[in-house]
Amino acid sequence: MDRFSRIDFCVEGLSVERLLNHCAKQGIRLKNVRRRSLRAVAASATPQDFAALRTFAQERGWHIVQEKAAGVSKLRGVARGRALLVCGIAAFLAICWVASACVWFIDVSGAGPYEAEVRRILAEYGVRPGRFSAAIDAKEIQRTMETELTGLSWVGVHKSGVRVNVQCVQAEVLPEIEEAPRNLVAARDGIVASVLCQAGTPRVAPGDMVRTGDILIEGVERGSEGSFTPVCAKGSVQARVWYTGEAFVSSVEEQIELTGEEKMRRVLYAPAWEYEYAFETPPDFTQYELESRIQPIGGALPVFLRTEIYRQTRTVTVARPDEQVREEAAQAALRLAGESAGWELEILDKWVEYSMIEKEGYRAKAVVEALCEIAYPEPTAGIR
Predict the structure, then answer these.
(1) What's the pTM value of the predicted model, to 2 decimals?
(2) 28: left (phi over 0), alpha (psi -120 to 50) or beta
(3) Cα–Cα distance, 124 to 147 (Å, whole number)
(4) Which of 58, 71, 94, 191 has its CA 20 to 30 A from that of 137?
(5) Nearest-CA neighbor of 157 among 116, 112, 111?
(6) Residue 380 pLDDT exceeds 70
(7) Contact, 40 vs 62, CB < 8 A?
């Protein structure tokens, strides 16, 4: 570590240059060499080089005076003189590090009547003031609380500095609502695929064709003595249903083409004025494309030349290939049918029918067969 420290000194005597030459020959490295007078030179060296230099200087009669130490040597000197202070600072820093690495505060919020159970689990995992934070597994504690404390709908365990925060959300128990007797009826036409009855009496079976409004599950149940009790029908009825979509696509399309005739206009302008100095003929085209070019011509002045080229165009009708027209019509009809069904449904099958309108285009009708829930509460009160 001595290579990082240095000692400042001053050498006085005759022919001090001989001393410097000797240092160069012996590999003694001097820094900040500066002459103070004709017989004195100041410099700095490492402790090892300074010791070798002082021995040689004393043998040759030069007087060498150590002025001050710097770098690590200076710190060593301070440490020797204030050993108790240095030890005290080191001990204080060590205590601060240990204190910051431990948990001193445990906060539990939102647990309500379950706070005692939360603190019990924390104690089982050794979470207490003075425990090293690195030894606490917050995720494992959170998993245990979620498993054991079923009265809490959410638990979060987090370490933040010298604190352990446990945030809880209590589960809400919804009151039971008495529901009036009702039937489950069909929301749309379809063929029943499955019936799941939780309350009431099923009136349809898989394979039955039903219409909108037909009773699927009746809100009555037969008692042990043959009596019927009105109930709120509950269950699920899956059915195959159909959604349609229609689209028309024209068999011709309009395209824009150039006629080959064009006219040019030139305008010289600046921010405050504009001058038109060349125009072949007025642009009387009913349909055209415009190309504009701007060229600075004023050098440092804001003067520009704008050239406008008007190219006459016309609209022509072009017949499209039949296969392309049919494909576009089918894709559009299928998209509309899918939007009607809702893409979240299970699609069982789909097909497209075409009808050609002479010289106009194709009309496509797409049918999508899907499996969906059709049972919903009867809108009118009472049991049939």
Answers:
(1) 0.41
(2) beta
(3) 15
(4) 94
(5) 111
(6) no
(7) no
Residue 107 corresponds to which tokens in the numbers above? 């906060």
Number of H helices, E strands in the chain: 7, 24
How far is 335 from 331, CA to CA, in rounded Å? Answer: 6
| Alpha-carbon span 215 to 192, nearest angstrom | 12
Look up residue 172 and give its two tokens.
Answer: 């809400």
CA–CA separation, 56 and 23 (whole Å)? 9
pLDDT range class, residue 177, cuts 50, 70, 90: low
pLDDT at 324 over 90: no
Of the two residues 254 and 280, the one the predictor is more confident about is: 254
Q: Which residue, 42, 25, 45, 21, is CA-closest to 33?
A: 42
CA distances from 6 to 41, 52, 83, 127 (A): 16, 14, 22, 52
* N-term to C-term CA, the chain: 101
Q: Rounded CA gap, 304 and 271, in Å?
A: 9
Nearest to 307 by CA among 350, 276, 342: 276
Whose CA is closest to 322, among 285, 298, 357? Answer: 357
Distance CA(259)–CA(310), nearest Å, equals 11
The single-letter DSSP state of residue 122 is H
**Distance between CA atoms of 221 and 204, rounded to whole angstroms?**
15
pLDDT at 72 exceeding the cut of 60 = no
Q: Is the pLDDT of residue 38 over 80?
A: no
Nearest residue to 183 (alpha-carbon basis) of 213, 211, 206, 222: 213
Provide the token pair at 353: 């029918």
Residue type, 43: A
Beta carbons of 87 and 95 less than 8 angstroms apart: no
Distance CA 91, CA 99 (A): 12
Tokens of 22: 């000797």
- More confident site: 191 or 271: 191
- 294 within 8 A of 270, measured Cβ to Cβ: no
Name the maximum alpha-carbon separation found in the chain.
Answer: 136
